[in-house]
Write a structure and sequence with these properties.
The chain has 15 helices and five strands. The chain folds into two domains: 10-22 and 173-311, no CATH class; 24-169, no CATH class. It has a five-stranded mixed β-sheet with strand order 1-2-3-4-5, with helices on both faces. The chain has 315 residues and is an alpha/beta fold.
């Protein structure tokens, strides 16, 4: 066990952080997923190219018969899930429906079940740009996309590829975050096999917070790990930073009050955090140890120092 057990300095964090975590196997798998979507769209276009002009009824039939129809139309109109959900919310509010925003799955179900709603969506995609109510309520920046001319598109494969990757950026980011969690889990599993020290994740009553990892358990955690990986900036980062710092302060208070030796670890990486230096600096300050992908091997020394021997099943 190394005697040089310490928290990384802010300069060390800046030098060792990654802007993008590049896992080639994951990137290839996600690209395969996108290429399958591209192929589905192209195959459909080649099979259904017609001279007949599109109309509302054709759009409704398409939306109900093809499981990828909504995705295809959104791609053609360059209309993201978020933008579509906001527009649907606007339409519902005009009808005095102030219930919470619908998910894409909910929108699909309503298209299948409700003829009136399906027709409304068909008209939205076909002639929403010139709809009098939308002209009044929806900015032209969003409205000008709502002008579907055809149920096919002659976009090149490369253009479709980029458009679909933009659409699935949320899923890509979530899966990438899951990869980082697996990196941490792999390190904890190595330690469990070597020393018999267990780990878990979830809510711990010690600080009344849901934590990413608790070692050796949630009832009596001596090492708590909160992790965050962001390649882009988001409004949620400040909230995440605040929650991580609050958890650290709670652990620090317990240590002082009870004379204990519990450790709070911030695991943070990615270009999105490098771009938010003030928040990043706060996170480096607000923890007992700060780690990133380049310093995963420090987990072992931290855990061995802070987890009491009674929780070791192997010496």
């Amino acid at each position: 066990m190394s005697h040089d057990l310490r928290k990384l300095s802010f300069d060390e964090v800046l030098e060792s952080s990654v802007v993008f975590y590049n896992d080639k196997e994951f990137e290839e798998q996600f690209d395969d997923f996108i290429q399958k979507k591209v192929k589905e769209i192209i195959n459909r276009e080649e099979g259904e190219r017609e001279e007949e002009l599109v109309n509302v009824q054709k759009i409704v039939i398409f939306l109900r018969e093809d499981p990828n129809a909504l995705l295809i139309i959104q791609t053609m109109l360059r209309l993201s899930d978020e933008k579509l959900k906001r527009i649907i919310t606007l339409i519902r509010r005009q009808e005095k429906d102030f219930a919470p925003e619908w998910s894409i799955e909910k929108i699909k179900k309503m298209i299948d079940r409700d003829d009136k709603f399906a027709t409304k969506i068909g008209k939205l995609f076909l002639e929403g740009r010139d709809d009098p109510i939308l002209i009044e309520k929806l900015p032209l920046f969003y409205r000008e996309r709502l002008n579907l001319k055809s149920l096919t598109t002659e976009k090149t494969r490369d253009e479709l590829n980029i458009m679909l990757k933009n659409k699935f950026i949320g899923e890509y980011s979530n899966k990438k975050g899951g990869l980082i969690e697996e990196l941490i889990k792999d390190e904890l599993e190595k330690i469990r096999i070597k020393y018999g020290i267990e780990y878990n994740r979830g809510k711990t009553d010690l600080i009344d917070v849901t934590v990413d990892w608790a070692i050796p358990n949630l009832n009596d955690p001596y090492v708590i790990i909160m992790s965050s990986y962001n390649e882009t900036t988001s409004s949620g980062q400040s909230t995440k930073a605040r929650d991580m710092i609050t958890a650290y302060q709670s652990i620090d208070h317990i240590n002082i009050q009870k004379g204990e030796n519990r450790a709070f670890v911030n695991f943070v990486d990615g270009g999105g955090w490098l771009a938010r230096r003030n928040d990043l600096r706060r996170l480096v300050t607000g923890c007992h140890y700060f780690l990133n992908i380049a310093n995963l091997d420090m987990f072992e020394n931290i855990i061995l120092k802070h987890v009491p021997k009674r929780y070791w099943k192997k010496e």
